[in-house]
Amino acid sequence: MKTPVTELFGIEFPVIQGGMIWCAGWELASAVGNAGGLGLIGAGSMNPDLLREQIRKANNVANGKFGVNVPLLYTQVNDIMQVIIDERVSVVFTSAGNPKIWTSTLKEKGIKVAHVVSSQKFAVKCEEAGVDAIVAEGFEAGGHNGKEETTTLTLVPLVRKVTALPLIAAGGIATGRAMLAAMVLGADGVQMGTRFAASTESSAHINFKNEILRTGEGDTHLVMKQLAPVRLIKNEFYNQVLNAELSGKSKEELKEILGQGRARKGMFEGDLSAGELEIGQVSALIEDIIPVNEIMQNIIREFSLAKNELQKL
After folding, report:
1. Do 195 and 224 sit in the same domain of this protein?
2. CA atoms within 13 A on the CB side of 38
3. CB 101 within 8 A of CB 130
4. pLDDT, tens digit (0-9, with 9 covering 90-100), for 36-47
5. Tally of domains in the chain
6. Is the entire prediction scored with pTM above 0.90?
7. Which of 94, 174, 241, 301 is positioned for an S-S bond with 282, CB 3.0–4.6 A?
C-alpha cells in the first residue's frame, strides 16, 4: 500500500501505533514495525535512562522501524530529546506543546517529525514550524485530548483544507473500515492507540487490558477540561476527578490529584479502582487481546474488503 505516509516513514502500511504511556514499550513498538506499520515508544512514562534502554532493545529486533512519542510538556523533555538524538532515532512524534520548540533541532539531526493536533489552527502552526507530518486527533481518542472537542470525522477534513502535508487521522480508529473512512476524508494514514493497547505485546497490565474488553459504549468520559482534558474509563478515580471538578477545586488541587502516580497505578500496575485508566471511545469495539501481527493482518484485510464493497456502489 502506497501513500504519502508510507513513503515518508518507509513502512509497508499507513498504520502508526499510538505512543501511549505505560502501554507502548519496546516490545509493542517493535512488533508494529515488524508487522509493516510504524511503532512508537511512549516516552511520556519514562525517565531518560529507561528510554535509552527501550530504544536499544527495540533496535535489536526492529532494526530502526520504530519512533518515539514525546509529550513536550514533560518535565524531562530536554534530557529525553538528547537520548533520542544520541541513539539516532529516525522518527519522533511530538504532542502536548508547541512544535516550534524542537522541530528544527530534530530535523537538523535528520529526524522526521510529526506533531499531534486537535484543531485546524494548530495544524497551521505545525506547518509553520516545519514538521514533516501532522496527526489530527479527534475528541474520541483516549488519554489527553483537545479542549475543542472536535470529532475525528470533522477534524480530518478541516485539517486537510489547510495543509498538503502527510496527514494522519487519530481518535476512534481501530479497524480497517475506520481506516478507509479516515482516508476518504483526506487522511494519508491512521494512528491507533486503543487497539494496540489491547495486544499481547502491549506493556499494559493484564487487568487493564481485560478492562478494555469490558468497556462498552459510554463507559469513557472526557474530564479535567479546565486543566488538561483527558478521556478515562469511569471508575473510583474518575469519580474523584469528576467530583473535584464539580466542586470547583482549583487547578493546583486538580494537579495534585493527577500527580499521585495514578496513571502508572492503573495502566501499568493494574489497580482498576484507584488507578487512572486512559482509553478511547473505540474500546467499546475491542473484543480480544491478540498479537500485533494478527491485528495488522485483520486491519489490512478489512480495509481491502471495505474498499471493494465501496467500488460496487
Report:
1. no
2. 26
3. no
4. 999 999 998 899
5. 2
6. yes
7. 174
